[in-house]
Sequence to fold (119 residues):
Amino acid sequence: QVQLVESGGGLVEAGASLRLSCAASGRTSTTYYMGWFRQAPGKAREFVADISESSVYTRYADSVKGRFMISRETSKNAVYLQMNSLKPEDTAVYYCVARRLSTTTYGYWGQGTQVTVST
Fold:
């Protein structure tokens, strides 16, 4: 089992930046893909970005490409999401996720951190 705890959310104005962090604990000796999803009020959860265990591969939703950057520090069992040029439509609860390499479904989820972008 892996436990994920997010931090770094908050209220910012449009155009600002935020950095989300996620700390993994538990059975972290197993390698995992890690990433971020988000859920805006009244909308379904959507994929934001993910990163391979070696950080070689990254993937982004079209809506955040060029503005968000995902990274990880394997030694700290941490993953980060640097969010720049934030827009009001980025307002959502952001969830850190993890999956084993042998699966394609993200089975581990954090509790989420709120990001609110005002106009």
Notes: DSSP finds no helices and eleven strands in the chain.
